[in-house]
Design brief:
mainly alpha; 3 helices
């Protein structure tokens, strides 16, 4: 019986929102020129996004790998040796 009550409450809430206009979507029109302009900009935007993501990934990997390099066990063993041999 709990499921039926929950479903009825959900249906009533949805009907209320539709009747009062809360669920109305904002209407926006786009001109053919805007559409063509937006489509023409896609390759440039994708290229810029991809370049940005590659740079962020490189920076992150450089940071993480340098931290990991200092934490590896053989680096601790190596640091006990004479550093002038490097």
């Amino acid at each position: 019986m709990k499921i039926k009550e929950t479903i009825m409450i959900a249906i009533a809430a949805l009907a209320f929102m539709l009747i009062t206009g809360i669920a109305k979507a904002e209407e926006k029109t786009i001109t053919p020129q805007e559409f063509v302009s937006n489509v023409a900009e896609v390759p440039g935007k994708v290229g810029n996004w991809l370049t940005s993501e590659v740079e962020k990934t490189k920076a992150y990997q450089t940071k993480v790998w340098s931290e990991a390099k200092n934490k590896w066990p053989w680096n601790m063993l190596k640091s006990n040796k004479n550093d002038t041999q490097n």
